[in-house]
Amino acid sequence: MFGVTQKQVERLRQEYPKGTRLQVTFMDDPHGVPEGTVGEVEFIDDAGQIHMKWENGSCLALIPGVDGFRRI
To answer: Which end of the chain is more exposed for a tag (fewer CB within 10 A), N or C?
Structure first.
């Protein structure tokens, strides 16, 4: 999510509060989290990236509009 506004960041923070469980469906990163991996939202930074604590131990962030994910 590039050129994100503060309003968009606040909307993401309301939609995905800390502890929300998400499953990655696609990550645009050659070393990304494997499809199907589940994790919990830790926080959303000012750039709109969703920082995660993945069940496989990874802590890569999701980028809305680039990476695919769904709430579970």
So the answer is: C
- If DSSP codes are grouped into helix, strand and coil, which group holds residue 10? helix
pTM over the 0.90 mark: yes
Q: Per residue in 38-59, pLDDT tens?
A: 999 999 999 999 999 999 999 9
Q: What are phi and psi of 11, to 5 degrees?
A: -65, -45
Side by side, which strands form the sheet with 68-71?
61-62, 50-54, 38-44, 21-26, 68-71
Cα angle 31, 1, 3 (rounded to 5 degrees) comes to 135
Q: Domains plus CATH for the chain?
A: 6-71 (2.30.30)
d(CA 47, CA 66): 13
Contacts of 55 (CB under 8 A, 6+ apart): 37, 38, 39
